Structures are given as structure tokens and as C-alpha cells.
Amino acid sequence: MKVRIGEGATTEEAHAIATALAEHLGDAVEVVADGDVVASADPPERAYPLEDDLGPTEREERLREELADIYEGGPQKYRDRLADQGKLFVRDRLERWFGEPTFEDGRFANFDAWHPNSPEVAEADPDSRLPADGLLTGAAEFEGRDVHFMANDFTVKAGSMARRGVEKFLRMQQRALKSGRPVLYLMDSSGGRIDEQTGFFANREGIGKYYYNHSMLSGRVPQICVLYGPCIAGAAYTPMFADFTVMVEGMSAMAIASPRMVEMVTGEEISMDDLGGPAVHARHSGSADLVARDEEHARELVAQLITYLPDHAGERPPQSDPTPPTYSPEGIDELIPGSPTKPYDVHDLLDRVVDAESLLELRPEYGSEIVTAFARIDGRPVGVVANQPTQRSGAIFPDSASKAAEFIWTCDAYEIPLLYLCDTPGFMAGSAVEKEGILEQGKKFIYATSSATVPKQTVVVRKAYGAGIYAMGGPAYDPESVIGLPSGEIGIMGPEAAINAVYRNKLDDIEDDDERAARERELREEYRRDIAVHRMASEVVVDEVVPPSDLRAELAARFAFYEDVEKSLPEKKHGTVL
Fold first, then answer.
1. Pick from 458, 477, 243: which is nearest to 362 by CA?
2. pLDDT at 175 over 70
3. Do the beta carbons of residue 142 and residue 306 sit within 8 Å?
4. Over the stretch 302-326, which tens digit does the pLDDT of each residue have?
5. How far from 319 is each of 59, 219, 303, CA to CA, in Å?
6. Using one digit for the tens of pLDDT, what is the confidence trace for 226-265?
């Protein structure tokens, strides 16, 4: 490095300047005056290794004290109440989930507003603690997988969200978009901090950006939300945008407004649990995918769930070692009744098809005419869409159609192959379901099946009537295979309805009761022969009829063979069906 000085400097001054700069900068220095080098100096040699008695100074010790204070959370009186509410302190919760997080971001968020070590705070008020601004974000290892996380600290103003916490949340989401790793939202928030809304509510980079980022993350990386308390107003949209939402009995709730606000607006008096508790969202709205008994069970459910999911879109879901099914596939034929109207539990069929203990059913109490579940066949994850004959004969209702459509859409986003087990009389008819949008929801079901490009296998277990076979991955919907069991039937409608529609007048003209009954039986058998799976196989409508005892092995072979199948959609921006 060369340094120019004025001509009036003495030689001693030039040498002093060169020596000081060389020592300070750690580099060789030449001092130039009037174009000539008048002094030079090399940096002093430093002995390595350094002395081994170096260590933390008071500066680091003070920082560690500040961090320890931050880790204590909000005011002690609010922390004392957590046990009565049946919930863990947020940092104890993180320890249960992750042990020690890989790292945390923004621990000092809003530090200047509350901590006595801040030059802006003259004296600390114990009731005004805002450590980490009430929202923790970072990265951790969960069940061997790297994930992003956020978690509300309910001891800080009931987990409410304000400017600095919102900024941390947004940064975490934006980093997840770049890293391609799953996101866990551990929610316990009363919503936006109303008394501090300036600067974060409607801003371009405010709380509203949460849901924009959720939308961008949707289908890019898995988003899993666990609710540990009441999530009200804006906070309730994070579980809505997540791919999977877990609620905890006795503590979780989510609603667009609090009971107090509901009463003020509508006059309705209602408890938080009745307004938006787990029972409401598991049975009626369908917004809860899983309901946990307690905090530990919630973690167990998410640990199971994530084993079916890749880290990001375009990556295959993880495989496991194959395990035999719970019960032998040889019992399938006896399980399936010959009469299309006699019920059986499709879970019993799945116990003979999928790997033992691999079935994870989502939304079991909502739209229960259809079972949507993750499972494995020979170690490979699959998404199961199965009609449930024990529930209204497996007819498709608006809520079950909506549930199936959303599940198919999610499986397709994360490269999870689909298995359809079809045994349905079709979409339900009547004024009630028309008012509930059976056509609208049925359209979405069919659209999801049509648009899914993951490998699809369809099994006609028994009845496949009406448009039900369309939604359930029928031959026209580009499945890799349509397999029939010998009990299978494919037709516009079932025998009873068909006979009544076509032959009712001719049958009524037969005066003798025995003769009429005999003719009706004859017509019914003729119709069933026309729609039987053997006829469909003869006409190559289905690809194959397989012995029920071979169904599991057949599916395993087909999923393995079509694992790398390439499928595409017409070039377009996107469809118009939501």
C-alpha cells in the first residue's frame, strides 16, 4: 500500500506514519512525498498459535446473560399459567420436538423496547417483556430431516404478532422457498397485536404477506401446522394455508373471530371450543386433517406424516423397508360381499393390501364416505382414495368430494402415487346435496383426478356406477392401470335403478306377483351380466381381472414398474377449476 504525505513532513514523521499504518492494517506500507518513497514499514510478525489462555471477556458473558433472559420468555405470571392450560412453554416445546434447534434467527427482535441493557430502556418493567417479539423462527432437525420452524410464545402477549415477529416469520418463509425444505408452524397466537398494528398490518412486507408467501410455498415444500391454542382472525389462516393441520384436544381452536367478537357482531353467545374447536373442524368444516390427544401425540402424528413427504416438489417421497400387510391378502375375496348393496369396511380391505401399520388416514370424520390416507405398498408411499361402503353405501357427497379433490391435489404436488379403490353407487342425488354444491364439488374431484400426473392405479373392487367411476380414476382418466376384482361392476347405474328406469311400466303390466318378481330377477341378472367386470375385460375397458389374493402383489409390481412414468398436461397458465 502507498500513502502520500505533504512535502513538509519530516523523515521521522514519515517513518512513524508508515509503522503505525502497517501495524494497524496488517499490510506493507510505503510513504511517498513528492513522488519519492521516503519511508516504508512491514507489518509486525504475529506469533501463532496465539496464547492458549485467551477466553470470553465480560462482553461475551453479558451477551450470554441477555440470551438467558430472552430464553425465559414473557412475564412470569403468564408462564405460570401454562400448566393450568395443559400446554408447554414454547422453548420446552421446541426441546421436545427437536432437542436443540440447529439455529435460531431474531432472538434479539424488539430487544430495544424492553430489555434494561438496551440504551433506550431506563428501567425494566417485568410485565412488558417482549423477548424475541413473541415469535421464534429458525432451523432444526426433525426425524432426520432438516426443516424450518416458527413457534409462537404464548407468554408474550398471548402469542400475538407484531412488527418484528412478523418480519422474522416472512424471512423464514422466503428462505424456505430458496432452501426447498419443509416448514413446521407451531401455532399458539391470538392474532395481530392490535395496539401495535402500525407498520405491520397492511404493509407490503407486513402480516398480509404471510398468506402470499404461504401461497408461493404451496406445492413447493410441505407446510405442516400444529395448533397449540386458540388461533384467531389472521392467525387462523396459517393452518388454513398449510398442507396439513393438526389440532390438539382440549387446547386448540381456530376461528375468524373470537367468541367476544362474534357476540358483539351477531349476538350469538358461544364458547371457543364450540366455535372452532377440534370437533368443529374435524367433523364439520374439514379444516383439521388430524386431531391429537396431547402435545406428545401431536409430535408423533407429524413424525409419521413427514415420512410420506419429500423435502420439496420434484423429489420422490422417501421409501421404507417393505413389510407384509396386517392380514393375508387371501382373505380379500371372502371380505367383499357379492351383493353390491351389502356393506363392508374398506379399512379391512386396506389391512390386506398395504404394509402393516403404514396407514395414516386424514380427515377420518369429515366426508367419511371416502377414505383418504397415506400408506405404503412394498415400502413405496401411496395416497389412497377409497370409497367406504359402511357410510351411506359409499355414495359421494359434497364434503367427501371436496376432501378427495384436495387430497389428490396434494399428493400430485409432492409426487405421491395414487391408489383408487372404487366401490360407489356414484354421486348422491337430491335437493339437499344440490344446495350443498354436489355438482361444484364433484367437478373439483373429477378435475383433480384428471390433472394429476403422478402414477395412478385404479381397482374396481365392486360397484362403479355413474360418474363415480370418473372421479375414482376410471379408464378415461389416464390411470396407468385399471384392475378389476371378480366382484367388480361398471355401469351407468346399479341394477335396481336401471330396471326401475327402463322396465318399470312393463313390469307393472304383469298382474301376477310371482311372475312379475321372476321377470324382475331375470332382468336384474341380465343387467348385471352386461356390467360385470368380465364383460368389461372382454371389451378391454379394464386392463386386467386379477384374483383377489394377488391384488397386493399386482399393485406392488405395477407401482414399481410405472415409478418413472412421464406424464404431462397441455401447455397453459393454469386451469380455471379451484
1. 243
2. yes
3. yes
4. 999 999 999 999 999 999 999 999 9
5. 49, 20, 15
6. 999 988 887 899 999 999 999 999 999 999 988 999 999 9
Nearest to 212 by CA among 238, 194, 233: 238
* DSSP single-letter state for residue 281: I
Amino acid, single-letter form, for residue 213:
N
* Residue 255 vs residues 72, 240, 272: alpha-carbon distances, Å: 29, 10, 8
Q: With H, G, I as helix, E, B as strand and everything else as coil, classify residue 133.
A: helix
Could you tell me the three cell numbers for 16?
512513524
Tell me the Cα Rg of the chain. 33
3-class DSSP state of 89? coil
- Look up residue 247 and give its three cell numbers: 389440532
Instruction: Please state whether beta strands 481-484 and 544-545 pair in parallel, antiparallel, or not at all (unpaired).
Output: parallel
For residue 216, count other CB atoms closer than 10 A to its CB. 13
Cell numbers 485467551 label which residue?
Answer: 54
Closest CA to 442 of 456, 424, 461: 424
Nearest Cα neighbor of 227 from 181, 260, 259, 273 is 273
Cα separation, 489 vs 475, in Å, equals 13
Q: What is the DSSP string of 373-395?
A: EEEEETTEEEEEEEE-TTTGGG-
Query: Parallel, antiparallel, or unpaired for β 380-387 and 370-377?
Result: antiparallel
Average pLDDT, the chain: 92
The DSSP line for 323-335 is ---SS-GGGHHHH
Task: Give the 3-state secondary structure of residue 246.
Answer: strand
Residue 50 burial class via C-beta count within 10 angstroms: exposed 0-12, middle 13-18, buried 19 and up: exposed
Beta strands in 432-499 (DSSP E): 456-465, 481-484, 489-491
Q: Which residue has the cell 326401475?
A: 500
3-state per-residue secondary structure call for 129-165: CCHHHHEEEEEEEECCEEEEEEEECCCCHHHCECHHH
One-letter amino acid of 131: P
On the question of pLDDT at 115 being above 80, the answer is yes
DSSP 402-426: HHHHHHHHHHHHTT--EEEEEEE--
The DSSP call for residue 280 is: I
Question: Any bridge partners for residue 137, and if so which?
Answer: 105, 150
Phi, psi of 138 (to 5 degrees): 170, -155
The distance from CA 308 to its chain's CA centroid, rounded to whole angstroms, is 11
Alpha carbons 351 and 349: distance in angstroms, whole number: 5
